[in-house]
């Protein structure tokens, strides 16, 4: 039988998956549930805020300063801060609030920068055609800003995937539990299964988002990726 990482065999990994299949599937479901919740709430909150800042630029610097401060705060520290708030406590609520706030910077910044970067001559041409502010936003600014906005969305999703793993420290149950339990118990199969599964999830999600970008954003407007 093949010997894999840490002297474990393929048979030992199969045995682990058989013994922990229920937990494995539940952790994957929890991981995706948290990622989807954070992403949806973040889009609902931060995209409109970015649009608001474009129209009320006097608030932009202050909001960006707050967003940057949150983004520069270590994620684990942010989790602990919200966990210590009585009505949030240990568990998903604290993780959700912290991750949504963490998503503020990439989404608000990219929406603001994307829309602000639309050529003013294009906007003037749209005004000359009789379009009002809302029509210009919907038909001109948002489509042209889509590449930058989508890049922020893509960053948010991948960042959220990584942060959700650390959320196990405050009571969330997902694949991160396998990683930290595996390290504490020196259980190589548990550690590797958790780590590899998370890597696969991140790669698959990035691939799906790249595919969506190709479908949604015209080729000439896409933001380059290494």
From TrEMBL:
Residue spans crossing the bilayer: 34-54, 66-88, 94-112, 148-170, 190-212
Gene Ontology terms: biological process: glycine betaine transport; transmembrane transport
Keywords (A to Z) from UniProt: Membrane, Transmembrane, Transmembrane helix, Transport
Protein name: Glycine/betaine ABC transporter
Domain of life: Bacteria
UniProt topology in membrane: Multi-pass membrane protein
SUPFAM superfamilies: MetI-like
Cited InterPro entries: ABC_transp_perm/SBD, MetI-like, MetI-like_sf
Keyword Transmembrane set for record: yes
Pfam families membership: BPD_transp_1
GO cellular component, one term: plasma membrane
Residue span, ABC transmembrane type-1 domain: 28-209
Location of this chain's protein in the cell: Cell membrane; Membrane
Family that this chain belongs to: Belongs to the binding-protein-dependent transport system permease family.
Signal peptide positions on this chain: none
Species per Swiss-Prot/TrEMBL record: Formimonas warabiya
Gene3D superfamilies assigned to the protein according to its UniProt record, in alphabetical order: MetI-like
